[in-house]
Amino acid sequence: MKHQPFFLDIDPATAADPTVPYAVLPIPYERSVTFGTGTAKGPESILIASHEIEDFDEEYREPMDLAVQTLPTMDLEGASDEEAIAEIQKAAQAPASDGRFLLGLGGEHTVTLPLVRAAHAIHSDVSILQIDAHSDLRDQYLGNKLSHACVMRRLRELDYPTVHASIRSMSSEEYDYVQSESVPVFWGADMINNQEIDSQIVSSLSMNVYITIDIDALDSSIAPGTGTPEPGGLGWHRLLSLLRKVFESHNVIGADIVEVAPIPGSQVTQFTAARLGAKMLMYHKKGCKP
Description:
Blueprint: E1 8-9, E2 22-27, H1 42-50, E3 56-57, E4 62-63, E5 68-70, H2 81-97, E6 101-106, H3 112-122, E7 126-131, H4 151-157, E8 162-167, H5 172-181, E9 185-187, H6 188-191, H7 197-203, E10 208-214, H8 236-249, E11 251-258, H9 268-287
């Protein structure tokens, strides 16, 4: 049965319309993945799945009733890595400047760098909550400083404070960096059966928060379509419990979902990602801080 679309397709001519409070930016950027590929197909697959989402929120027991605009999918063909990042930042900064909440859809995790830059240009005192199986704190990976494995390191070099949750995989180099820089890391194993740790995560954040979610933060049974899956991920309700606390206690200024690599013949991962995007927008609507 076809349901009312959640991520609505609106004429690009209205892209700068500040009366549409929620914007979704599809970014099929894939340059540095080295194991499983396919993240360039992630945004389109999430958008297609989003049209099957019920418009009733089972948690709040009420209609979502959200005005959401899907912006034009970015075309970064032929651009260098640096040029692509600049284009993403420019595209993200327009809705952010209008006071709209932007949800970015990757693509590989590198896209978070320009998305956070755009948000930070509008808001001060921003911390980044990364929910991910991997810390992405390498200085470089295979000679590439703009690799998806380095994105959080690049953000920290811009003096943006980061908090890392659901982490289950890290290199020795990254662990040494975490220790030397006192980076707040909350390990996946510690989070699975301990919701009290969420208060520690929340207290580690500044009032303005940007949330980036690598889909591999979730258990592989509900998000198998990703390039580097790790065992021991968060369950659906465990992740939502954390997100709801963050949205209720902080001013979340933007978010992204990255690293969805659709598996042919399976709809699981992209539908999970679409539902996750819907939940974050609903949490923002219900719990947004002034």
